[in-house]
Amino acid sequence: MEISTTYNLSISKIKDFFPPSQVIGLGEGFCMIDVRASERLKSFEYPCRFDGVLVVYCISGRVKVSVNLKEFEAGEGSLFITVPNNILKVCDIPDDGKEHRYVALAMSQEFVSDMKLDFKRVIGEAMMWAEHPVVRLQETDKAMLAKYMELMAGIVRSDMEYKDEAVMSMASSMFCLYISIWKRGVSQMKESLPVTTRSKMVFEQFLRLVTEYHTMHRNVGFYADKLCLTPKYLSKLIKTASGRSAPEWIDSYVILESKNLLKYSDMAIKEIVYRLNFPNQSVFYKFFKARTGMTPSEYRNS
Questions:
Q1: Residue 235 pLDDT > 50, yes or no?
Q2: From CA 98, how far away is CA 75, in angstroms rounded?
Q3: How many CA atoms lie within 13 A of 80 on its CB side?
Q4: Buried b (16+ CB within 10 A) or exposed e, 154-190
Q5: For the chain, the helix, strand and coil percentages under 3-state DSSP, each to the nearest 5
Q6: Is residue 127 over pLDDT 60?
Q7: Among candidates 47, 21, 50, which has minimal Cα distance to 36?
Q8: CB 59 within 8 A of CB 35
Q9: Candidate ranges 114-128, 254-268, 273-287; pick with highest mean pLDDT
Q10: What is the mean pLDDT of residues 117-130?
């Protein structure tokens, strides 16, 4: 299986997972999906990345998802948002005989950029994405979201002359609503979080860097330099914010990448060693076995 078909997702690939009757959208920039069959989410049971913004509103049922190796549960009446380069996985969908229905919006980075929204500033002020990708909605939020989605779906299906511009404006407005909901939800959680604002901020920056550089750099010093901190102080902040050490986070990303390459690509192990910047196969074997209890070959054949 080619790695691109299971690991890196585009909007067109996401569309392919669902029947055409459940998907509406605008090319490679935007799509809205009405997910009514939980089996459809099994396409996401392997770790993957979507290089854009994904918003999922859980209307009924519940699902366990993993974001950057941390598990969260999205239940009825909750909103799940993830940003570019996060590692995503659907961990569990209860087989309880109940209807599971979700509405998902996928937006490419280009689409979000064209919305003229100061996305980085909004994220920094409103959310701790890595810590809280799921929040519950109030009844007024649900009613407002339903109106937004109904209107947006009508625009997408129409043949109006300026449809693309109208959808983009609508998406920008709806995204501001999402941000407001998140900001309120996160502010309600802050009192129970025994971490400082500084450590939260550094932890989020650290995870973004690890997501980008883990295939090349496994030394804490590299990330400390990027953040203009000493390795000791960075390690202290990461431990405070997450309960895990900085090396554990880096190693977890490398192991996840290794597992994907071993299971879902045809690359030889020596190619994987080169891709992950290990000096030789022996070092890679020791690293992998120490953290998984299996050799790379054993894992690939399991």
A1: yes
A2: 13
A3: 25
A4: ebbeeeeeeebebbbebbeebbeebbebbeebbeeee
A5: 55, 20, 25
A6: no
A7: 21
A8: no
A9: 273-287
A10: 52
